[in-house]
Give the backbone structure.
Amino acid sequence: MILRLIFFELRFWFRQPLLWVFLGLAFAFACALAVFESEGVGSPGMVHVNSPRHVFELYANLAFLWLPMVTAFVNATAIRDFAHRTSDIVFSTVVTRRQYLLGRFLGSTLVALIPTMGISAGLVAGSWIPYGDAIRFGPNNWVVHAQAFLWFAVSSIAFQSAVMFAVATFVRSSAAAFVTSIALVVLNVMATAYATEVDNTWLASLLDRFRCEGFGRGDTLLSVHDSNTSLLPVVGALTVNRLLWLAIGAIVFVLGYWRFSFTERRSSARPVADGQDGGRMNTELPVVSLSHAGSSRWRRFGRLMRSDLGSIYRSGVLDHCRAGSAHVRGRISEVNQAFGNRSWPVTWQCHGVVAGLVHALHRSDHHLLQW
């Protein structure tokens, strides 16, 4: 039954254009990056465009941007039965809780992994395009792409999927899943800011959930030859970081699995007593009349404003703003500190904090419009 649910999710998403849009964007971005690479990468005598270090850095940096994509796939899968009112039909079958949750979770996670393969495909295709100097590229090593895919794509997406799936199945709401994604972004940025004050570099390397700040503490000391040939170390801070956050994601998923129930949530509305509807129908309707006076227009304006403000408040936009405010407060408090050294919070530092927040909010705006 678990395999049947996984194949159902794969067949469902293969027919959706969203999957191929994400895959095409990843492929086009990586291919363009390989063809039009600048800033010394791929220059003669420098690190190759398709070198192991460049592939690892590209996967690590894009792991942060995969969060909206993972949220879109996993959240839609987790609440599909509740959103389409088919939960009663599905839950009345012989499927168990273990089969239902594992099948949905594994299927949506595999779907979210498919667009990340466009990164390796784009880099390889870009190295084959006859553009510029061929010395910018080295030999394509599929072991490098497989290691980057496992260390960064699989581990990051598995953690993100576990958290999103647990929240979506427990709350059964799209707004909660997207608010959780914004909270993960804010917490990651705050943890990265406070990691600069940690004297123990080993602990600081574990706080970076996405490993966007570098894939190893000794990576900056690599020579050009090592950057073009060396693979990631199997034992080290990176492996411990991946295992730590995978374990945290597994704990969150187990909590969501334990709290999940096939029964519907209790409604806060009170049941209608017998005969109450009939009494209501026999009640005489009040006599009303239309009024176009100025006071009526102001009352209508006030009620429309109250209705719109209430819908905005219930949609979760204020939670989005609170998370952004917490992010700014945390970053501003640490903007003038780095590894024990203090400096003035000059304009360019504060501008970088606010610009990073605006960029993160912009990536999630198209999801907020769905609320």
Summary: The radius of gyration is 26 Å. The first helix runs from residue 2 to 14.
